[in-house]
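Margin note from the TA: students keep mixing up input and output lines. Inputs are the sequences; the output is the structure of the whole complex. Example:
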Amino acid sequence: MATNPTQLRVIQTNATDAAKAAVAAVVASAKPAEAVVQLPPRPKKKLPRVLAAVGRGAGQVLPSLIVVALLLIVWELMASGPKSALPSPSRIWKEAHDLILFPFFVNGPQDIGLGWRVLTSLQRVAVGFALAAAVGIMLGCFVGQSEWATRALDPIFQILRTVPPLAWLPISLAAFRDSAPSAIFVIFITAIWPIIINTAVGIRNIPQDYRNVAAVLNLNALEFFRRIMIPAAAPYIFTGLRIGVGLSWLAIVAAEMLTGGVGIGFFIWDAWNSSKLSDIVVALIYIGLVGFILDRAIAALANVATRGVQAA
Amino acid sequence: MIAPVKPKLHTDPVSAHRRGPLLKIDHVDKSFQRGGVTTEVLKDVNLSIEKGEYVSIIGHSGCGKSTLLNLVAGLTQVSSGAVLLENREVNSPGPERAVVFQNHSLLPWLTVYENVKLAVDKVFGRSKSKAERHDWVMQNLDIVQMGHAKDKRPGEISGGMKQRVGIARALAMEPKVMLMDEPFGALDALTRAHLQETVMQIHTRLGNTAIMITHDVDEAVLLSDRIVMMTNGPSARIGEILEVDLPRPRNRIELAKVPAYLSAREAVLKFLYERHRYVEAVS
């Protein structure tokens, strides 16, 4: 490959004489090292690697930045009329820039930055989701491992998983008689189904070979669970966790609207009641970004935890 | 070479333990039930294997040779008859009958070292110290020339290397009999030849007992002391047992001119392609 540009160059410089060019080409291909020295280094190779990486990164982000800018412009144009029901971006900035710029201010018990509210909601999600993950993986292993349990429980799971999160709220309020555990229960019950179902599928898909290895080694139930089942089903388990965490985040906002308290969901409801539409828009952006980060965090965790499993 | 031992009735279990064959497959039948239909796979299989013997089982696909190996491994249960190891019936899997699986079956989330270590920890967890177990893992990886790749994951090494690790894992369990289910079936011809050499060296060095399933006539003759030829299924049985009376160590290039090698090869080929030709089952 290295000789090709050299040959071309030589041919170009001797283009006036065809016979000479042919000879030159032969010489060039015979002694490529000499010819290469005469060439100026390619400009591309002069670029430092860091700069190239930054360029690549910008290439990834730039298109979506452009689209966001365009959307903001269209939005501004559509919402800037005097009769517009919804605030324009410039009005949002005017009315709610403190919420955007200072996520962690504290001015009073109910007048706190959105960062604090998001953290409160995240705390609820963490408790509910952790419970759902622990119980869901256990139940999923049990269901996936036993033919009978699959037949008995799978239809029930399939029906229950379609129940919308908020439909569970009245019943959990009745059961717990308190809003805090009710909200956590709603998270739990929302997130657990995809975790159970995906774990069970992962367990059912463990290749017979791995089971044979475990049998020949005489692994006991606990060793089999720890050394074979969990790692083999890990990609499926993480798929379930990823869906589960997304649903949890959907559910917490809705649950908090009804149960009150300090969370981001209640903030939206409160802002609606005091007609602060700009605050709502800012809160929506917060929710979207946090949901995105949660999803990416689980995906990154999955990449680390399941390395090697897919490759083989 | 060792002649097949006729089944004898032993009254005294201790002396029987000394006199009997290492492994005995005694009047084994195996049938599978599916949807009310019973298929008889193996019918009245009898085979005795002495300590240190290398026995190949050869036959056309679907003749139940893998089923036979699984019965010895304890991964499937006999329908009638018994598999006896040192005169004790076996009906569940165990490390004293380690299996080298056709597709290596290494755990992809563990490194080469950890795959072997898992087996060693399980088998020698009580009898060897931590340092001894580490040495034992490395020793077995070195036997199959895979010590250099101990920190690689199965996804990062070639098919032949994976199978080497599979063999190391089985060897590391110090099995009384090593069971190999078409161990070289998924490998290309050159890699296969390399691995056959390695297995021969190991057999010479350790004198271990091995049963190997194969459908490769040359491989069977090259490696085995005896070749067990299976008839076609259903209701497959042992059609013939061929003693391969060739001196060890064997060299595949020199063997090509040895009359005993050629006649053994011819005998197996005749069995497979003349008397028990493979007919595609219409079901």
